[in-house]
Amino acid sequence: TMFNIVPVSAFTDNYIWVIHDQYYAVVVDPGEAKPVLDFLEQKKLKLTAILNTHHHIDHVGGNLELLQQFQVPVYGPGSELISTVTHRLKEGDSVYLPELSLRLSILDIPGHTAGHIAYYGANLLFCGDTLFSCGCGRLFEGTAQQMYISLNKLAKLPDETVVYCGHEYTLANINFARLVEPENQAITQLQILAEKQRKSDLPTLPSTIAKEKACNPFLRSNQPEVIRSASNYAGKPLTDPVSVFTAIREWKDKM
Ligand code: ZN
Ligand code: FE
Fold it and tell me: I need a labelling partner for 48 at 20 to 30 A (CA). Which of 60, 113, 178, 236 fits?
């Protein structure tokens, strides 16, 4: 079957991704209900499931109000406490969405939160606040090493995988990426495109794994220019990729 995937904007920079066909819709990380309900009504769609990637309120805050109108299963990370979740998931599990004939597998990707999960299937990746276009989530509950491993797991997905992130952070992320890798022309090209999109009020998302591997400094800890910049920031030579990743994550946090 065919379906569309569209971003519904919430708060200042959240995207609630809606996967829908002509009749049915599934939402990913509905931080608020109102914009989702408006979209469903406008398109005359019936909600059939809610997917949550992690417990932060800007990703789950709309669950309860949506459930008051639609009695649907709520999928979420098994190791996080989200009171509205009915199906608790971990890596190895999968979710089948029969109305859309879509199966999504679960990946454990801790770092931003301790139990953060991603939904992956049919060349689609819903990764919440772990991987952003040209950036990655802050380390609220996990270690840099955990986040490094999680991001590498995502980087190993096929190049053509389409990446649906939880926030519109691309322009700020690109500014930082250019500090880390001034010579990387792929970042410069991405900036030209992203600025054009934002001026027209268009989302810069989704991305792809191929684009992220070319531009995202947090997936590029092996690149000489990234190693050089991270070492320069740390004030000592860094060699292993986890130390390089840790340094650029700290550097970005201080921007
Ligand atoms: Zn979050
Ligand atoms: Fe968030």
Answer: 113
